[in-house]
Write a structure and sequence with these properties.
By secondary structure, this protein is of the alpha/beta class. It has helices spanning 10-14, 24-35, 53-56, 88-97, 117-121, 133-136, 146-153, 169-178, 202-213, 230-235, 247-251, 264-272; strands spanning 5-8, 39-42, 63-66, 71-74, 82-83, 106-109, 112-116, 141-143, 157-162, 183-186, 193-197, 220-224, 238-241, 255-256. The chain is built from 12 helices and 14 strands.
């Protein structure tokens, strides 16, 4: 089996602890794969504008799976050959469940993040840990009233993100959202709740992209660590879990590589794509 496409998660997989940079060894391995004609596809829960620049700048990286599979983006043209949006009526129901006094809420629309001023002004009160600082400072558009914005603009909603909710709030919110029906709930970071339309996931997006490119899923390596990567690993012919992955992700993998801080992506690519000695 020859790997023709690598779908790789970002946080906890390819990126370093700063959630923005890629180690030299990981970059070198992906560059070698690209030079051999292997397609490299970033596959992230992030919206398009939050994809790390070192990844977007890799020559040959054209497509990205964003917002947990709600969109496949052509980085060259800006087009989205595949989308799976969250119905607006469900988005409005979610916002009714998550008022500002409960938790932070942001809505991903057209590759960008939107939030209400009421949420934004309460960020200091939500008790985010220091390691979330980078996510809190990311570019987002602040509107006066998010529910009103959705009603008036009728945008295409990719995903709703509820970052870092400590227990017991996290479990309570998860149960309330499950009760709505029609949603896919996953988490890529501790205590996150990431909300997509039912059926929207990285695996479904990967299937659509591979069909468009004429790449058999059997020839795809998928690499990830968290619950939002599970469907992607199940779809790929060669699923790889990081050493720091959740147990259920490891159970779905053919190979478990080293943790992300030990260049696990490079080790898997070097051995199973490039055929180099060593590796996993």
């Amino acid at each position: 089996m020859a790997i023709r496409l690598i779908a790789v998660d970002m946080d906890g997989t390819l990126l370093r602890d700063d959630h923005a940079s890629v180690s030299p060894r990981n970059l070198a391995a992906l560059q070698k794969a690209l030079a051999r004609g292997v397609q490299v596809v970033p596959a992230s829960g992030r919206m398009l504008t939050f994809l790390p620049e070192p990844v977007r700048a890799l020559p040959g990286v054209r497509y990205a799976i964003t917002s947990n599979g709600a969109a496949v983006c052509d980085l060259r043209t800006g087009e989205k050959p595949f989308t799976h949006f969250l119905p607006l009526e469900l988005a409005e129901e979610i916002l009714r469940i998550v008022p500002p006094e409960k938790a932070m809420c942001e809505v991903y629309i057209n590759g960008e993040s939107y939030t209400s001023r009421a949420y934004y002004e309460k960020i200091p009160q939500y008790g985010f840990p220091p390691e979330y600082r980078m996510f809190l400072l990311k570019k987002r558009t602040v509107v006066e009233d998010l529910p009103q914005f959705l009603r008036e603009k009728q945008p295409q909603v990719e995903k709703i993100n509820l970052p870092h909710q400590p227990e017991p709030l996290h479990s309570q919110m998860w149960r309330e959202l499950e009760g709505l029906g029609g949603l896919a709930l996953v988490s890529s970071l501790p205590n996150n709740i990431e909300i997509n339309a039912a059926g929207a996931n990285k695996g479904a997006a990967l299937r659509e992209l591979c069909g468009m490119l004429g790449v058999p899923l059997a020839d795809v390596m998928a690499i990830g660590d968290s619950g939002n990567d599970l469907r992607m690993l199940e779809a790929a012919g060669f699923p790889v879990a990081m050493g720091n992955a959740e147990d259920r992700v490891k159970a779905a993998a053919r190979v478990v590589t080293a943790p992300y801080l030990e260049d696990g992506v490079a080790l898997a690519v070097e051995r199973y794509v490039l055929g180099e000695a060593g590796g996993v």
